[in-house]
Amino acid sequence: MSPFVPARGKPGGIGAGRASDRRTHAAEARYGAGQSSRRSPARSHARPHDRPHGRSPLAAARSDRASAVGQGGGGSGADILIGMYAPGTHRIVRTDGCLVENPQAQQVIRAVRSIMLRYGMLAYNEDSHQGFMRHVVVRVGHRSGEVLVTLVTNGDDFPASRSFCRELTRRCPFVTTVVQNVNERQTNVVLGSRERRLYGPGFILDELCGLSFRISSQSFYQVNATQTEVLYRRTIELAQLSGTQRVIDAYCGTGTIGLVAAANGAREVVGVDAVESAIGDARENARHNGIDNARFVAADATAFMRDMARAGERADVVIMDPPRAGATEECLAAIAELGADRVAYVSCNPHTHARDLRFLAQQGYRLETLQGVDMFPHTAHVESIALLTREKPVKSYAYVNISPSELGMGGEIKKPTYENIREYVKKTHGLTVSSLNIAQMKAECGLEKQADRSGDKKQPNCPPEKREAILDAFRHFGMIEDGSEED
């Protein structure tokens, strides 16, 4: 059986079917006669809202023989090496193909290599900061088949860009659009902030979970669309949306999972992401899918949720899919402050996932479900979904009797009149009591001294049933406490 990754290369990511986003890194490495290659420093492939294993970092390196060291263009003996980085290094291992990579992406990379040789384009040297072509990113729509090619260059000036695109689309007629991204910084971050469209609309469309999504060069989009649908549907299932929930989609990117939630049971979705171009795509995705119960905000997720909480707003569910580095403690604390009952946390890094789940547990959340999804077959990588629910505190009550005098209110309370007491007894007990009955009970309870107006005439005692009714009235008006009449 043929190996899935030839030689000893390190795959950056695996696609399924036509779902692919292949990145080719162009870096210059010179060879002297009888000398080993000079290694470049290790480079990280991560960028905000991008994952190292979500791309294939095949490198295109300039390799000149001793007679052509320092010579540019497609001179005699010059070649451009296309391969994968050896594990943990920036050493390029020649790779002519990968059995789990999209064949159209491979065809584009080979065509770019050939055209670079034809036009004498130098690959970028990250040591000297010289050379033109830094990276090539190829994105292929899973269902649409549309292809976006992003050429990352070390400068704005792109000589013969029209001829380059014309030749590329002649060799690869399936290419839908070509974009130039300019990155002049000395950094291992792949994409720069400036772009211009060279050919086509500058974006592609693809379908996921029954919705159509606009994908640009800066947009995060899972490379394995078949398993992405499994991942998103399981996330929505765990969120238990019933049409009444307000959902926050943190780190929303182009709004993929948030729009799936909006179309499948959420009352309202608020997506937040720091990348403005991704938010622009998310808004456009909502518009052309006809979804009006989702809105997207370009902001820091932590600050946005904290401000919501402090403004008295809350969310029922938070769905989050942060970068590989995970979420910050400030972000997780903001989720707890927001009072979300359920948190569906999607992660591509088990280490940071476990760390963040531990912190959420300290904030009063309980892990209910942990589900793995094999997004990257034939690799050690796995995507995981955790469902957490907020533990509600158990309320207990202690019943106490407090007299008005104990509250310092004794002198402030207006004493009930004899008429008040008679009305209460009549309404509550259906008995008619006299002023004499009330006066006798007041004297018995020590509330007032009974004046002797009887002379030698003997006064009748208050009947037992009236006695109890009057005592109940005294308790009702706060004149005595329970049991005091028995002292």
Task: Spell out the blueprint of helices and strands.
Layout: E1 20-28, E2 56-63, E3 79-85, E4 92-94, H1 103-119, E5 133-140, E6 147-153, H2 161-171, E7 175-182, E8 194-199, E9 204-208, E10 211-215, H3 225-239, E11 246-250, H4 256-262, E12 268-273, H5 276-288, E13 294-298, H6 301-310, E14 317-320, H7 329-338, E15 342-347, H8 350-362, E16 365-373, E17 383-390, H9 418-429, H10 435-444, H11 464-476
Parallel strand pairs: 1-2, 6-7, 11-12, 11-14, 12-13, 14-15
Antiparallel strand pairs: 1-5, 2-3, 3-4, 5-6, 7-8, 9-10, 15-17, 16-17
Helix pairs in contact: 1-2, 6-7, 9-11
Task: Give a concise summary.
Helices cover 27% and strands 22% of the residues. The chain is of the alpha/beta class and 487 residues long.
Description of the molecule:
There is one protein chain. This protein is of the alpha/beta class and 487 residues long. The protein folds into three domains: 20-202, OB fold (Dihydrolipoamide Acetyltransferase, E2P); 211-390, 3-Layer(aba) Sandwich (Rossmann fold); 416-486, no CATH class. Helix content is 27%, strand content 22%. It has eleven helices and 17 strands. The strands form three sheets. Strands 4-3-2-1-5-6-7-8 form an eight-stranded mixed sheet, covered by helices on one side. β11, α4 (256-262) and β12 form a beta-alpha-beta unit. α1 packs across α2 and α9 (418-429) packs across α11. Residues 1-77 have low confidence and may be disordered.
Order of helices and strands: EEEEHEEHEEEEHEHEHEHEHEHEEHHH
Q: How many β strands by DSSP?
A: 17
The CATH class designation of the largest domain is: Mainly Beta
CATH structural architecture of the largest domain: Beta Barrel
Strand order of the largest sheet: 4-3-2-1-5-6-7-8
Spans of at least 5 consecutive residues whose pLDDT stays below 50 are 1-77
Question: Which fold name corresponds to the CATH topology of the largest domain?
Answer: OB fold (Dihydrolipoamide Acetyltransferase, E2P)
Principal-axis shape = rod-shaped
Please, how many domains? 3
The percentage of residues in β strands lies in 15-25%
Binding site for S-adenosyl-L-methionine: 222, 251, 273, 321
Pfam family, one: tRNA_U5-meth_tr
Biased composition (Basic and acidic residues): 19-28
GO molecular function, one term: rRNA (uridine-C5-)-methyltransferase activity
